[in-house]
Write a sequence for this structure.
């Protein structure tokens, strides 16, 4: 009977139109249900003559229906299961009414089937409930929803291991932090860690690289069948690849046992005098303890006290000596010439001890590189430092022949030309005194002619204390070739042009010095006539 009455109302409303709807509708539908407005749509939510049923709601909300049937999520929890949808989500309260509303602070997330623990409990809802995390394609295009998330870690998180490990992240990781993986137990793997392997940082074996353009650390597929999978074979396969025959994981330097050891299988073959050395001389603590051997100085004291260094590193004895005996050496001239002092000329005939053993012990680095380090500088204080800086004898001399001198005299400001090219250096720069002493003259010499030559004119042509002979003479021939009498105070003209010089310029004696007088005081006629 009730259904019949309801059907009658339905017919009445259909005929009467909108005025009747306004009288029986409880109110406007919310915006999300606005498409269901109209009397013809009532039965999409309501049964005829009955209230809204869960079945009607779930006919539209298929994604929720699917989760309830799978007994997943909040609506399948014991607290919600069996309740009517309209108890929480009723409508007809206006366009702006929020059908979906709850207190986020009081919401019990445990009822969803995913308990928020660790760092998850500190997250905002919207940080997880967003479209890129949805795994359910039915809700993928919704503007916003709390549905569609998976309980699996990879539903929200990027697979750091890129499918090389199991997808159940919680097998190794906790919810407080991704690192470290506190739940992981290496003892449960195919390679349990023993000995010092237990203290090795993971990254030493599980290298961090880049894979598919992102940071990646390899855990699966690491080789462990042989020690050489991770370790470099220090023996270079001389003892095979089965390291466990001698070594244990507690320490590489702990060896199980050793007998009849063939030293030639090591990197250091015993030769010559080394063959007669007791093992304990080198292996002082243990025959298996690490021992440096690459250089002679690893065992032997440096007799030369760091004299042979290159770029701050002491050079090894093997550069000059061999295992047959320290007193034998093979240092060549070529090796010497590769250093800072090249052996040339007379130096090639000089024995090593003449330079390097002037005292009780050999000395190599303190010998010096300059000539004056071995030879006496006979020119000291006589030659200016700028002429031969650092007393560099090689500016003039060479090691092949000491008296073979090659020096550019023009650097002194006095160019050698003409007759000056004939004398030797000693002729000008060494003067013998009356008492037999030989005096050097270098920086004490000036450009004045009379320092080397006698002034036969006795200062007649001196000007400001300097007599310049080249005004009349030249350095090729002493004969006068360029004197012009007309440049003097007495110009020669007329008969005077043919008068011999001696007619006017006669010898005179002044203070026991006899010389030709050229500087005649008077130029009047009566001075001569």
């Amino acid at each position: 009977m009730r259904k019949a009455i309801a059907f009658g109302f339905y017919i009445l409303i259909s005929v009467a139109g909108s005025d009747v709807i306004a009288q029986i509708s409880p109110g406007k539908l919310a915006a999300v249900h606005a498409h269901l407005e109209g009397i013809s749509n009532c039965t999409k939510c309501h049964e005829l003559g009955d209230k809204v049923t869960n079945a009607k709601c779930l006919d539209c909300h298929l994604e929720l229906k699917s989760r309830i049937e799978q007994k997943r999520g909040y609506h399948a929890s014991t607290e919600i299961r069996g309740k009517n949808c309209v108890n929480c989500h009723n409508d007809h309260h206006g366009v702006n009414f929020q059908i979906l509303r709850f207190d986020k602070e009081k919401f019990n997330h445990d009822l969803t089937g995913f308990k928020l623990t660790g760092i998850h409990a500190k997250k905002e809802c919207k940080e997880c409930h967003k479209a890129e995390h949805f795994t359910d394609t039915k809700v993928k295009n919704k503007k916003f929803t709390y549905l569609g998330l998976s309980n699996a870690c990879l539903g929200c998180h990027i697979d750091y291991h890129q499918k090389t490990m199991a997808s159940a992240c919680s097998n190794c990781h906790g919810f407080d932090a991704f690192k470290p993986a506190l739940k992981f137990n290496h003892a449960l793997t195919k390679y349990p860690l023993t000995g010092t392997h237990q203290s090795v940082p993971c990254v030493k074996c599980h290298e961090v690289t880049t894979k598919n353009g992102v940071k990646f650390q390899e855990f699966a597929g690491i080789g462990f069948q042989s020690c050489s999978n991770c370790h470099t074979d220090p023996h270079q396969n001389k003892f095979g690849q089965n390291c466990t025959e001698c070594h244990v994981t507690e320490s590489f330097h702990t060896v199980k046992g050793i007998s009849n050891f063939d030293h030639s299988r090591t990197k250091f073959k015993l030769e010559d005098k080394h063959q007669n050395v007791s093992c304990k001389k080198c292996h002082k603590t243990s025959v298996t303890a690490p021992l440096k051997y690459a250089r002679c100085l690893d065992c032997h004291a440096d007799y030369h006290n760091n004299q042979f260094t290159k770029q701050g590193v002491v050079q090894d004895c093997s550069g000059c000596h061999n295992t047959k005996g320290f007193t034998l050496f093979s240092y060549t001239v070529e090796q010497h010439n590769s250093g800072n002092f090249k052996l040339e000329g007379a130096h090639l005939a000089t024995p090593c001890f003449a330079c390097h053993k002037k005292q009780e012990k050999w000395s190599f680095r303190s010998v010096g590189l300059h000539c004056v380090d071995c030879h006496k500088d006979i020119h000291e204080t006589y030659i200016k430092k700028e002429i031969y800086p650092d007393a560099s004898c090689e500016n003039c001399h060479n090691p092949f022949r000491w008296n073979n001198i090659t020096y550019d005299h023009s650097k002194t400001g006095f160019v050698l030309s003409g007759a000056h090219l004939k004398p030797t250096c000693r002729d000008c720069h060494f003067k013998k005194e009356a008492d037999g002493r030989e005096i050097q003259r270098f920086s004490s010499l000036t450009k004045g002619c009379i320092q080397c030559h006698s002034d036969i004119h006795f200062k007649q042509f001196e000007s400001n204390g300097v007599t310049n002979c080249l005004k009349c003479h030249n350095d090729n021939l002493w004969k006068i070739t360029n004197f012009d009498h007309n440049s003097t105070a007495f110009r020669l003209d007329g008969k005077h042009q043919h008068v011999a010089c001696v007619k006017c310029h006669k010898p005179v004696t002044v203070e026991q010095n006899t010389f030709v007088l050229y500087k005649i005081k008077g130029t009047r006629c009566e001075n001569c006539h």
